């Protein structure tokens, strides 16, 4: 007498209305990117005016110069973010932040959450649960991402994970 202890059924997902894209980058021409750019341009204008027409003490200039450098650094980091699917891994890179590599065969699940506009500047969170860590890998994405690009990337990730699952089932 045979008894099934555990099982998993393979179920094909509905095709996404978005064309799958394996390589997406954050963009300048998004609502979040335009907002950050406007703030950085205002900081730049204040910095230049304070440099040309010095008023007050040196501490004010140091604070304005610090905000100027931090603002441009944050903006350049935001627009340089990239999500990419290679043959064997999910890759996240940015100019200043750390590079995150997750092998595709280790991915258990993923979840993309849209938080809307937040004070810390992050609008999206991509949580990837994989077998190498207990907690899911959290990839915070800046406000410079377009929803359509993220949906197209998730569609490509779904296709890759479905193909890996199908290959695993065929090997058994």
Query: What composes the largest sheet?
Result: 4 strands, antiparallel
**Proportion of residues in helical segments:** 40-55%
Helix and strand string, N-terminal first?
A: EHHEEEEEEH
What is the oligomeric state here?
single chain
What structural category do the secondary elements indicate?
alpha+beta
Strand content: 15-25%
How many H/I helical runs? 3
Low-confidence stretches: 1-10
Instruction: List the domain count as a whole number.
Output: 1
Please give the order of strands in the largest beta sheet.
1-2-3-4
N-to-C CA distance:
21 Å
Query: In total, how many beta strands?
Result: 7
Mean pLDDT: 82
CATH topology: PH-domain like
Concise summary:
This protein has helices at residues 31-52, 58-79, 147-171, and strands at residues 23-25, 82-85, 89-93, 100-103, 107-114, 124-130, 137-141.
Keywords:
7 strands, disordered N terminus, 172 residues, PH-domain like
What does this structure look like?
This protein has 172 residues and is of the alpha+beta class. The chain has one domain (24-171): PH-domain like. The chain is 40% helix and 21% strand. The protein is built from 3 helices and 7 strands. A 4-stranded antiparallel sheet has the order 1-2-3-4, covered by helices on one side. Strands 5-6-7 form a 3-stranded antiparallel sheet, with no helix packed on it. Strand 3 (89-93) and strand 4 (100-103) form a beta hairpin. Helix 1 runs antiparallel to helix 2 (58-79). The two termini are 21 Å apart.
């Amino acid at each position: 007498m045979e008894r099934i202890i555990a099982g998993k059924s393979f179920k094909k997902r509905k095709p996404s209305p978005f064309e799958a894209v394996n390589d997406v980058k954050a963009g300048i021409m998004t609502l979040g990117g335009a907002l950050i750019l406007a703030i950085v341009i205002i900081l730049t204008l204040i910095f230049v005016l304070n440099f040309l027409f010095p008023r007050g003490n040196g501490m004010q200039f140091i604070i304005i110069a610090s905000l100027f450098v931090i603002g441009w650094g944050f903006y350049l980091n935001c627009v340089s973010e990239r999500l990419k699917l290679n043959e064997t891994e999910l890759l996240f890179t940015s100019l200043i932040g750390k590079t995150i590599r997750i092998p595709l065969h280790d991915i258990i699940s993923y979840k993309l959450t849209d938080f809307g506009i937040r004070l810390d500047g992050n609008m999206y969170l991509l949580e990837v649960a994989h077998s190498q860590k207990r907690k899911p890998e959290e990839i915070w994405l800046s406000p410079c991402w377009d929803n359509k690009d993220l949906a197209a990337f998730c569609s490509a990730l779904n296709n890759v994970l479905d193909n890996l699952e199908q290959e695993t089932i065929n090997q058994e």
